[in-house]
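Exercise 7b. C-alpha coordinates:
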Protein backbone atom coordinates (compact mmCIF):
# COMPACT_ATOMS: atom_id res chain seq x y z
CA UNK A 1 0.00 0.00 0.00
CA UNK A 2 3.02 2.31 0.04
CA UNK A 3 2.76 3.11 -3.68
CA UNK A 4 -0.87 4.20 -3.72
CA UNK A 5 -1.80 7.38 -5.57
CA UNK A 6 -4.60 8.50 -3.26
CA UNK A 7 -5.13 8.71 0.48
CA UNK A 8 -8.88 8.06 0.28
CA UNK A 9 -11.28 6.47 -2.20
CA UNK A 10 -14.82 7.74 -1.66
CA UNK A 11 -17.64 5.53 -2.95
CA UNK A 12 -21.03 7.15 -2.81
CA UNK A 13 -23.97 9.04 -4.20
CA UNK A 14 -23.67 12.19 -6.31
CA UNK A 15 -26.24 14.94 -6.67
CA UNK A 16 -26.73 18.68 -6.58
CA UNK A 17 -28.54 20.56 -3.80
CA UNK A 18 -31.10 23.31 -4.11
CA UNK A 19 -31.16 24.83 -0.62
CA UNK A 20 -33.99 27.13 0.46
CA UNK A 21 -32.96 29.03 3.60
CA UNK A 22 -34.47 31.52 6.02
CA UNK A 23 -37.95 30.01 6.10
CA UNK A 24 -40.50 31.11 8.68
CA UNK A 25 -41.49 27.47 9.10
CA UNK A 26 -41.07 24.16 7.33
CA UNK A 27 -43.47 23.39 4.45
CA UNK A 28 -46.92 21.94 5.09
CA UNK A 29 -49.28 20.23 2.63
CA UNK A 30 -51.60 22.63 0.83
CA UNK A 31 -49.70 25.73 1.93
CA UNK A 32 -47.10 27.93 0.30
CA UNK A 33 -44.26 29.58 2.20
CA UNK A 34 -41.45 31.87 1.11
CA UNK A 35 -37.69 31.45 1.38
CA UNK A 36 -35.58 34.56 1.90
CA UNK A 37 -32.46 32.92 0.50
CA UNK A 38 -31.61 30.28 -2.13
CA UNK A 39 -28.37 28.44 -2.87
CA UNK A 40 -27.61 25.97 -5.67
CA UNK A 41 -24.55 23.88 -4.79
CA UNK A 42 -22.90 20.50 -5.05
CA UNK A 43 -24.78 18.13 -2.77
CA UNK A 44 -24.67 14.56 -1.51
CA UNK A 45 -23.07 13.34 1.66
CA UNK A 46 -20.26 11.55 -0.17
CA UNK A 47 -19.36 14.54 -2.38
CA UNK A 48 -19.36 17.01 0.52
CA UNK A 49 -17.14 14.62 2.47
CA UNK A 50 -14.77 14.22 -0.49
CA UNK A 51 -14.48 17.95 -1.18
CA UNK A 52 -13.89 18.92 2.43
CA UNK A 53 -11.47 16.07 3.03
CA UNK A 54 -9.48 17.24 -0.01
CA UNK A 55 -9.48 20.81 1.34
CA UNK A 56 -8.09 19.47 4.62
CA UNK A 57 -5.09 18.10 2.75
CA UNK A 58 -5.91 14.52 1.73
CA UNK A 59 -5.50 13.18 -1.80
CA UNK A 60 -9.03 12.02 -2.68
CA UNK A 61 -10.52 10.07 -5.57
CA UNK A 62 -14.21 9.32 -6.15
CA UNK A 63 -16.21 6.40 -7.56
CA UNK A 64 -19.80 7.28 -8.42
CA UNK A 65 -22.38 7.64 -11.18
CA UNK A 66 -24.06 10.70 -12.72
CA UNK A 67 -26.28 11.58 -15.65
CA UNK A 68 -24.90 13.20 -18.79
CA UNK A 69 -26.67 16.49 -18.08
CA UNK A 70 -26.05 19.98 -16.71
CA UNK A 71 -26.31 18.78 -13.11
CA UNK A 72 -23.76 16.04 -13.77
CA UNK A 73 -21.39 18.52 -15.37
CA UNK A 74 -21.71 20.75 -12.31
CA UNK A 75 -20.88 17.81 -10.04
CA UNK A 76 -17.69 17.07 -12.00
CA UNK A 77 -16.71 20.74 -12.11
CA UNK A 78 -17.24 21.26 -8.38
CA UNK A 79 -15.37 18.11 -7.37
CA UNK A 80 -12.46 18.97 -9.67
CA UNK A 81 -12.31 22.52 -8.35
CA UNK A 82 -11.78 21.08 -4.85
CA UNK A 83 -8.96 18.86 -6.04
CA UNK A 84 -10.93 15.60 -6.05
CA UNK A 85 -9.98 13.10 -8.76
CA UNK A 86 -13.07 12.24 -10.85
CA UNK A 87 -11.66 9.55 -13.14
CA UNK A 88 -13.75 6.90 -11.36
CA UNK A 89 -17.07 8.68 -11.98
CA UNK A 90 -19.10 7.18 -14.82
CA UNK A 91 -22.15 8.34 -16.78
CA UNK A 92 -25.49 6.55 -16.67
CA UNK A 93 -27.08 5.81 -20.04
CA UNK A 94 -30.61 5.90 -18.65
CA UNK A 95 -30.88 8.20 -15.61
CA UNK A 96 -30.30 11.84 -14.83
CA UNK A 97 -28.07 13.20 -12.09
CA UNK A 98 -29.66 13.19 -8.66
CA UNK A 99 -30.94 16.36 -7.02
CA UNK A 100 -31.97 17.14 -3.45
CA UNK A 101 -34.18 20.07 -2.47
CA UNK A 102 -33.50 21.10 1.11
CA UNK A 103 -35.77 23.28 3.24
CA UNK A 104 -33.75 24.78 6.09
CA UNK A 105 -35.49 26.40 9.07
CA UNK A 106 -33.26 27.45 11.97
CA UNK A 107 -31.40 24.22 12.85
CA UNK A 108 -34.02 21.91 11.38
CA UNK A 109 -34.28 20.74 7.80
CA UNK A 110 -36.48 18.69 5.48
CA UNK A 111 -35.28 17.20 2.22
CA UNK A 112 -36.69 15.68 -0.97
CA UNK A 113 -34.31 13.73 -3.21
CA UNK A 114 -34.54 12.43 -6.77
CA UNK A 115 -31.90 9.66 -6.73
CA UNK A 116 -31.36 9.30 -10.47
CA UNK A 117 -28.07 7.73 -11.50
CA UNK A 118 -26.90 7.15 -7.93
CA UNK A 119 -29.25 4.17 -7.78
CA UNK A 120 -27.23 2.41 -10.50
CA UNK A 121 -23.76 2.41 -8.91
CA UNK A 122 -22.78 -1.19 -8.20
CA UNK A 123 -19.88 -3.36 -7.11
CA UNK A 124 -19.00 -3.88 -10.78
CA UNK A 125 -18.09 -0.18 -11.03
CA UNK A 126 -15.39 -0.55 -8.34
CA UNK A 127 -12.46 -2.64 -9.48
CA UNK A 128 -9.64 -4.05 -7.38
CA UNK A 129 -7.31 -1.68 -9.24
CA UNK A 130 -9.44 1.25 -8.09
CA UNK A 131 -9.38 0.03 -4.50
CA UNK A 132 -5.66 -0.73 -4.53
CA UNK A 133 -4.94 2.83 -5.70
CA UNK A 134 -5.96 4.22 -2.30
CA UNK A 135 -5.02 3.73 1.36
CA UNK A 136 -8.50 4.18 2.80
CA UNK A 137 -12.06 3.45 1.62
CA UNK A 138 -15.01 5.60 2.72
CA UNK A 139 -18.60 4.74 1.79
CA UNK A 140 -21.61 6.96 2.43
CA UNK A 141 -25.39 6.87 2.03
CA UNK A 142 -25.79 3.17 1.37
CA UNK A 143 -29.59 3.30 1.45
CA UNK A 144 -29.63 5.66 -1.53
CA UNK A 145 -27.59 3.16 -3.54
CA UNK A 146 -29.73 0.02 -3.92
CA UNK A 147 -27.46 -1.57 -6.55
CA UNK A 148 -24.46 -1.30 -4.20
CA UNK A 149 -26.10 -2.14 -0.87
CA UNK A 150 -26.43 -5.94 -1.38
CA UNK A 151 -22.67 -6.19 -1.96
CA UNK A 152 -21.59 -3.79 0.79
CA UNK A 153 -20.06 -6.50 2.99
CA UNK A 154 -18.15 -7.91 0.03
CA UNK A 155 -16.87 -4.46 -0.93
CA UNK A 156 -15.50 -3.79 2.56
CA UNK A 157 -14.04 -7.29 2.80
CA UNK A 158 -12.26 -6.74 -0.54
CA UNK A 159 -10.88 -3.43 0.69
CA UNK A 160 -9.52 -5.00 3.87
CA UNK A 161 -7.94 -7.88 1.91
CA UNK A 162 -6.16 -5.29 -0.23
CA UNK A 163 -4.83 -3.57 2.89
CA UNK A 164 -7.05 -0.48 3.06
CA UNK A 165 -8.43 1.03 6.22
CA UNK A 166 -12.15 1.73 5.97
CA UNK A 167 -14.98 3.95 7.18
CA UNK A 168 -18.75 4.05 6.72
CA UNK A 169 -21.42 6.69 7.27
CA UNK A 170 -24.68 4.84 6.56
CA UNK A 171 -26.91 7.96 6.59
CA UNK A 172 -30.68 7.74 7.03
CA UNK A 173 -32.74 4.95 5.49
CA UNK A 174 -35.72 6.62 3.71
CA UNK A 175 -37.63 3.32 3.89
CA UNK A 176 -36.70 2.93 7.58
CA UNK A 177 -35.99 -0.77 7.09
CA UNK A 178 -32.33 -0.61 8.25
CA UNK A 179 -31.68 -3.90 6.47
CA UNK A 180 -27.88 -4.06 6.67
CA UNK A 181 -26.20 -7.05 8.26
CA UNK A 182 -24.10 -5.16 10.81
CA UNK A 183 -22.63 -8.28 12.48
CA UNK A 184 -21.15 -9.30 9.11
CA UNK A 185 -20.27 -5.79 7.90
CA UNK A 186 -18.82 -3.95 10.89
CA UNK A 187 -15.82 -6.24 11.48
CA UNK A 188 -14.56 -4.91 8.10
CA UNK A 189 -15.31 -1.27 9.01
CA UNK A 190 -12.52 0.41 10.96
CA UNK A 191 -14.53 3.59 11.68
CA UNK A 192 -18.34 3.54 11.82
CA UNK A 193 -19.78 7.09 11.66
CA UNK A 194 -23.56 7.13 12.27
CA UNK A 195 -25.47 9.89 13.98
CA UNK A 196 -27.40 9.07 17.14
CA UNK A 197 -30.77 8.69 15.37
CA UNK A 198 -29.30 6.26 12.84
CA UNK A 199 -27.52 4.24 15.52
CA UNK A 200 -30.72 3.96 17.56
CA UNK A 201 -32.66 2.89 14.47
CA UNK A 202 -30.11 0.18 13.65
CA UNK A 203 -29.95 -1.25 17.17
CA UNK A 204 -33.29 -0.46 18.78
CA UNK A 205 -31.47 1.29 21.61
CA UNK A 206 -32.41 4.64 23.13
CA UNK A 207 -28.99 5.92 24.19
CA UNK A 208 -25.41 5.82 22.98
CA UNK A 209 -24.42 3.32 25.68
CA UNK A 210 -27.33 0.96 25.04
CA UNK A 211 -26.70 1.04 21.29
CA UNK A 212 -23.00 0.34 21.73
CA UNK A 213 -23.78 -2.57 24.01
CA UNK A 214 -25.69 -4.13 21.11
CA UNK A 215 -22.87 -3.82 18.56
CA UNK A 216 -19.81 -4.03 20.82
CA UNK A 217 -19.11 -7.67 19.98
CA UNK A 218 -18.38 -6.92 16.31
CA UNK A 219 -17.74 -3.16 15.93
CA UNK A 220 -14.34 -1.49 15.86
CA UNK A 221 -14.21 2.31 16.29
CA UNK A 222 -17.62 4.00 16.48
CA UNK A 223 -17.93 7.80 16.31
CA UNK A 224 -21.51 8.87 17.01
CA UNK A 225 -22.56 12.37 15.92
CA UNK A 226 -24.98 13.96 18.40
CA UNK A 227 -25.63 17.47 17.07
CA UNK A 228 -25.19 20.27 19.61
CA UNK A 229 -24.33 17.66 22.23
CA UNK A 230 -21.12 16.91 20.34
CA UNK A 231 -20.01 13.36 19.62
CA UNK A 232 -19.25 10.12 21.42
CA UNK A 233 -16.35 7.92 20.39
CA UNK A 234 -15.95 4.28 21.33
CA UNK A 235 -12.60 2.60 20.69
CA UNK A 236 -13.70 -0.97 21.28
CA UNK A 237 -13.07 -0.78 25.02
CA UNK A 238 -14.11 2.62 26.38
CA UNK A 239 -16.31 5.59 25.49
CA UNK A 240 -15.45 9.28 25.59
CA UNK A 241 -17.38 12.46 24.85
CA UNK A 242 -16.23 15.16 22.44
CA UNK A 243 -18.02 18.49 23.10
CA UNK A 244 -19.18 20.55 20.14
CA UNK A 245 -17.65 23.90 19.22
CA UNK A 246 -20.36 26.47 19.96
CA UNK A 247 -21.22 29.55 17.91
CA UNK A 248 -24.42 31.52 17.46
CA UNK A 249 -24.13 32.83 13.88
CA UNK A 250 -25.26 29.64 12.12
CA UNK A 251 -25.91 29.86 8.37
CA UNK A 252 -27.34 26.32 8.20
CA UNK A 253 -26.40 22.82 9.33
CA UNK A 254 -26.46 21.14 5.91
CA UNK A 255 -23.39 18.96 5.53
CA UNK A 256 -22.19 19.41 9.11
CA UNK A 257 -22.13 15.67 9.69
CA UNK A 258 -20.22 15.09 6.47
CA UNK A 259 -17.70 17.75 7.50
CA UNK A 260 -17.38 16.05 10.89
CA UNK A 261 -16.53 12.85 9.01
CA UNK A 262 -13.99 14.68 6.85
CA UNK A 263 -12.29 16.14 9.90
CA UNK A 264 -12.19 12.76 11.63
CA UNK A 265 -10.83 10.80 8.67
CA UNK A 266 -8.32 13.53 7.75
CA UNK A 267 -6.66 12.87 11.10
CA UNK A 268 -7.29 9.13 11.22
CA UNK A 269 -5.30 8.51 8.03
CA UNK A 270 -2.47 10.51 9.63
CA UNK A 271 -2.46 8.08 12.57
CA UNK A 272 -3.56 10.72 15.08
CA UNK A 273 -5.10 9.63 18.38
CA UNK A 274 -8.86 9.14 18.51
CA UNK A 275 -9.21 12.17 20.78
CA UNK A 276 -7.36 14.28 18.21
CA UNK A 277 -9.56 12.83 15.45
CA UNK A 278 -12.72 13.64 17.42
CA UNK A 279 -11.68 17.19 18.30
CA UNK A 280 -10.75 18.02 14.70
CA UNK A 281 -14.01 16.43 13.52
CA UNK A 282 -16.06 18.57 15.91
CA UNK A 283 -14.20 21.66 14.71
CA UNK A 284 -14.83 20.80 11.06
CA UNK A 285 -18.53 20.23 11.72
CA UNK A 286 -18.81 23.59 13.47
CA UNK A 287 -16.92 25.45 10.74
CA UNK A 288 -19.33 23.96 8.21
CA UNK A 289 -22.24 25.80 9.86
CA UNK A 290 -20.64 29.24 9.37
CA UNK A 291 -21.62 29.32 5.64
CA UNK A 292 -24.57 27.90 3.67
CA UNK A 293 -24.30 24.48 2.10
CA UNK A 294 -21.84 21.72 2.76
CA UNK A 295 -18.63 23.03 1.18
CA UNK A 296 -18.78 26.85 1.18
CA UNK A 297 -16.86 27.26 4.44
CA UNK A 298 -14.12 24.95 3.13
CA UNK A 299 -12.86 27.31 0.45
CA UNK A 300 -9.24 26.49 1.30
CA UNK A 301 -7.18 25.22 4.21
CA UNK A 302 -6.16 28.80 4.98
CA UNK A 303 -9.85 29.79 5.11
CA UNK A 304 -10.57 26.84 7.40
CA UNK A 305 -7.80 27.92 9.77
CA UNK A 306 -8.94 31.55 9.68
CA UNK A 307 -12.51 30.61 10.63
CA UNK A 308 -11.21 28.32 13.38
CA UNK A 309 -9.27 31.20 14.91
CA UNK A 310 -11.88 33.91 14.37
CA UNK A 311 -15.02 31.99 15.35
CA UNK A 312 -13.70 29.43 17.83
CA UNK A 313 -10.37 30.83 19.06
CA UNK A 314 -8.79 27.57 17.96
CA UNK A 315 -5.61 27.06 15.95
CA UNK A 316 -5.50 23.58 14.39
CA UNK A 317 -2.18 21.79 14.74
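Sequence design result:
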Amino acid sequence: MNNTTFDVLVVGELNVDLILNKLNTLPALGKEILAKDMTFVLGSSAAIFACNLSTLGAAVTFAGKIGNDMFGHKVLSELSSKGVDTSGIVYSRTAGTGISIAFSHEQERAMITYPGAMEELSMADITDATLANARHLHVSSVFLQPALKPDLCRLFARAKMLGLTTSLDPQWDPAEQWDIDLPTLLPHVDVFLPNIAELCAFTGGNSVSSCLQTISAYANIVAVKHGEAGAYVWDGHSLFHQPSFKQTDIADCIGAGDSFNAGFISQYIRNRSLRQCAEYAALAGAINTTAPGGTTAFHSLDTFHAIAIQKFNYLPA
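Instructor comment: The chain has a mean pLDDT of 93. Residues 186 and 235 are 13 Å apart (CA to CA).
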